[in-house]
Please model this.
Amino acid sequence: MKRLLLFLLPLLAACSRDGDPMTDLYRQIDRAIADSAQAVARHEARITTLRRQWATERRSGRRFLIADSLYDAYSAYINDSAVVWAMRCDSLAKNTDDSSLAIGVRLNLVYQYTKSGYFTEAADYFSTIRPESLTPALRARYYDIGADLYGNSGYATEDPVIKQRYWQRSIALRDSSYLFTPRHSALYMRNRVQQLVNADSGRAALSFSNEWMRMTKPATHDYAIAAYYRSEACRRAGDIAHQKEWLARSAIADLNNAVMDQASLWMLAGIIYREGDIDRAFRYMDYSWHCVQRFSAHKRSWDVTPILTVISSSYQTKTHLANERLTALLITAALLLIISISLLLYVQRKRHQLGEARNALDHSNRQLRLTIEQLNRVNADLSESDRVKDQYIGNFFSLFSSMLENLDSFRAKVRRKLKAGQSDELLAMTDPENKNQEMHKQLMKTFDDTFLTLYPNFVEEFNALLRPGCSVRPSGKERMNTTLRIFALIRLGITESSRIADILGYSPVSIYNYRTRAKNLSACPRDEFEEKIRIVSPQTAAP
Model:
């Protein structure tokens, strides 16, 4: 048990980390995809500079170096252009005495044709090279490229016998490469990790991967390759979480370096798709397909097409379902909008009706208030009439009682005069003119006192209706004169000139003239003067 733990602990330590880094890595991938146009522009600028140098350079040696640099720039960017510049390098190398240059160029062509899936062309160029005459560095590269050629050829063929033959040839070439590859070189580490992954030895693969990652510069294309093989080691160890992490790191490095010949992003998309994140998988797969088209290599299309088809189909199905749900939601929203508008119109109509009812109620309330005010005025007028009646009845009885007393006194005086035979004095006492004047004065005095008791401000209010300087005032000890008495009777509701004339002892013509003169002095229109007199308010006199 202890030995088992000692065996597993390094593997777990190599393939595990605290926390989930994928959220941040996804953000970095999304940002790198969004900024990919800038990365491509930078790479194109470098290519443009090299092409300008090529166009102006005349020295063959220097032209070879520029062509080789252009091959390197196109090698993982555009396959067809990389082959073209490799061909130019081949033509230039033939004009030199350095056979190593020609063999290096031929290996470039084998490598490029292998990546693009042109295995026949790659095999033809590979067969022209004799490894016995090569330097150790070129022999290591020869065996490595040959192992890659036959490995991919075996992967592509459907014939099991030929497949097995190619793979055995690939393994033999890979083993030969170790004899000429330095132990701590990146090429040695890559071949060992790949060999151990194929042999299903995850622990050992991760151990070599750790050493390889330490010697690789971050954010470079070499780092992307190392991270990809580390993801393969994690896959063999069964650690899918860290396989995704290293595929993501590899993809980020390739995206930032405008590498179009990449596998990390579409392999990551396949894992994400199986986990159910179809939208992200489709975005990554869509960009990977864009890179494949730009790189223009048949082999990459063969690799990507199966997973692209599955993800695209699932995405289209999901999009179709989403569109159906969206259509249903839009229909539901439209129905809800129609219902809402209908309810709004209904509420508005009810509010309008309520407003009309409220206005009608306000109008009714105003009418009711006016009616109440009119009733209050009528009640006040009735109360006033009752008070006036009471006052006048009291004054009438008082005057009647006084007249009875005067009559009794007069009758007693007449009897005494008759008994005494004083006929001349009796005739003087019974002179009707003197007696009527005295009684008329008494009646007017009583009327004045009674009316001014009921309307103590009548004289001031009457004069307020006249123009300035035209006021009417009683003379002497009288409280009212004839004009004031006429309009006092009008205030009491007696408007006929004939009745006023009978009460005051004047002719109707005289009463008419008095009324006309007062109207002529009015500050208001003549036809409104007497109406304003009739609404003079009574005021209670002080007791």
Observations:
- The chain has 23 helices and no strands.
- The CA atoms of residues 55 and 94 lie 20 Å apart.
- Confidence is low (pLDDT under 50) at residues 1-18.
- Residues 298-420 form the longest helix (123 residues).
